[in-house]
Amino acid sequence: MNRVWAAGTLLVLLVILVVVAWQSIPWHRPPAPRPDQLAALDQLPADQVARGRAFHAELRPGSYGAMLLTLIVALVIGLTPLGAGLVTQAGRPFGGHWLAQAILGGFAVVLVSEVVTLPLAAWRHTIVVRYGISTQSWGAWTVDLLKSFAVGAVIGGLALAGFYTVTHFAPRWWWAIGAAGAAGLVVLLSFVLPVVVEPVFNKFTPMADGPLRTELMELAARDGVPVKDVLVADASRRTRAVNAYVSGLGPTRRIVVYDTMLTEAEPAEVVSVAAHELGHAKDGDVLTGTILGALGTAAAVIVLFLLGSWQWLLSRAGVDTISEPRAIGLLLALVTLAGLIAGPAQAFVSRRIEARADEHALVLTGDPATFEAMQRRLGTLNLSDPDPPAWEHLMFASHPSTVERMAAARAYARGER
Ligand SMILES: [Zn+2]
Question: CA 333, 339, 343: angle at the middle one, nearest 5?
């Protein structure tokens, strides 16, 4: 009976997920015509294109190596009794109490994966430093790493403690409480992360009064998007790359511009980027992401519960039930696998949403020439591959490529979009 309820709830969640995704994601928005893209590519300086390609060719082995290694470690820990053994050991100093197993066992399992991939992360750092993208010393890089471990430990520790408290006290109905709790956590985090976690890594200061700030606030007002503030992040202490983004919902919403952007780009280009970010706010992309994330996470908890009656899986991991902390390794393996499978779909959705925000910027500013100049500058400063290999773009790219974005501006200028 319990399983029937779970399966029914899962079905309802998936239907809502599909309806929300159908309504809120601009599916029918193919990239700009390929001839326009090739024309744009032709106009980029050849040495810049070559440098971007060389940079990404050097990064590739480390990136895919890390991906593969993470999967292998997760599968080895999750589908052998190794993970259960690790969790048992971690809980031993506390008499094997389930809460100690949940928190410390979770840390132990994640730590193994982090340590194994650490050399690849360090390798990546040497490459981004050599190409002048990163401005971080090894010391600063290590501090960032430790900070992200600490943030992950706090959020992960709370999530694990919460989850296993529920499975402990509601062994039959944990899927229902767990799904609701997980969805709630996703919503909470999307409010809290920008305000609490982002300042751990960067300092944010309100943009100084002046023509640019006035223009950005006027742009937001003209667009009908309430923005609390325009903040500048001190990204230059870490990178030479430029970026801007919008984060937070409702009262925590703000436009954030990297300080690198203000020194490297023309004010009109900053306006163009901000117009793109306002597009995200106006179309409720952060909210959409939060809702889809919450629904997806709730569904994942129920899938986990249903998988828990698959004896083969449990005996691989050497556990009695999927709801005990000793199954954390198995949990991590399933999450890692699901993440890899869902990645290309998420990237596809993201690219379509980004293309819509680009169009918003074009319409709002009515200035495709500056938009194209800004894309060119973003590509140059961030050492993008302006026209990456098609398979890589399909699998992983969260944004349209530089030439796709330049081509979109050209199509818009001709009145085609
Ligand atoms: Zn965007």
Answer: 155
Q: Confirm or deny that 97 is annotated as ligand binding.
A: no
Domain chopping of the chain, boundaries: 2-24+32-413
Which residue shows structure tokens 């223009």? 215
Length of the chain: 417
| b (16+ CB within 10 A) / e for 18-36 | eeebeebbeeebebbeeeb
Q: What residues sit around ligand 1, an ion, with C-beta below 5 angstroms?
A: 354, 357
360 CA to centre of ligand 1 in angstroms: 11
What pTM does this model have? 0.90
Close Cβ partners of 36 (under 8 Å, ≥ 6 residues apart): 406, 407, 410, 411
The span from the CA of 207 to the CA of 201, in Å, is 18
pLDDT in tens, 329-382: 999 999 999 999 999 999 999 999 999 999 999 999 999 999 999 999 988 888
- Helical residues (DSSP H) of 131-210, grouped into ranges: 138-169, 174-192, 198-201
